[in-house]
Structure to design on (206 residues):
């Protein structure tokens, strides 16, 4: 906690310097903005479900764009990924990969143009895992998931339908406020590596 408070204090100081440095040249302004972004990112990474830290990081990135520009769009991509910095306990999303059980603790659900878009992630202790899928609103049944992707430490796996233990899913609840279902089977990476998924479950509200 002392480390986090120290980071926050440094962030506030650098941010105030940036806002008051109109007399400095553009290079110094940009350098300070980058330092503020780095400090804000470090604080946010300590607790990614902290709304204040998320908003601080987002503001720092926006300031960096103002003072340094963003010709390659990387900073804006980071801002977009942060969303609105509102974190809600949506429910349960988990799967067993081989013998490894993964419970996705950070869950984001969006409804756009009749599609429910679900993304879950788990980070920390050497792991960086995420899952993504889409469902047509108010649709239940077998094999109606769309654009399923499981990412394990950078490796992307997609549903396999070669005829042996094919990836499958069963959606039992799909209403205006909640979705529930199961999934499992083989998923495959671009280089041909396979993983077996079992006990995939989700019970989510949005």
């Amino acid at each position: 906690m002392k480390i986090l408070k120290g980071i926050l204090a440094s962030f506030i100081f650098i941010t105030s310097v940036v806002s008051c440095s109109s007399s400095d040249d553009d290079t110094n302004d940009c350098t300070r903005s980058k330092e503020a972004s780095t400090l804000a990112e470090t604080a946010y990474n300590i607790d990614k479900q902290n709304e204040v830290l998320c908003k601080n990081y987002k503001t720092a990135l926006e300031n960096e764009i103002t003072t340094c520009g963003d010709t390659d769009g990387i900073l804006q991509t980071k801002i977009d990924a942060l969303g609105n910095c509102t974190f809600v306990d949506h429910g349960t999303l988990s799967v067993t990969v081989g013998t490894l059980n993964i419970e996705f603790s950070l869950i984001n659900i969006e409804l756009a143009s009749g599609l429910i878009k679900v993304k879950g992630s788990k980070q920390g202790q050497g792991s960086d895992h995420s899952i993504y899928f889409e469902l047509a609103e108010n649709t239940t049944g077998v094999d109606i998931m769309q654009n399923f992707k499981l990412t394990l430490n950078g490796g992307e796996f997609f549903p396999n339908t070669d005829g042996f233990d094919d990836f499958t899913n069963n959606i039992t609840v799909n209403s205006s406020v909640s979705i529930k279902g199961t999934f499992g089977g083989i998923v495959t990476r671009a280089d041909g590596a396979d993983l077996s998924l079992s006990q995939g479950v989700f019970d989510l509200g949005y």
Observations:
- The chain has a mean pLDDT of 88.
- The chain has two domains: 2-82, 91-205.
- The longest strand covers residues 178-189.
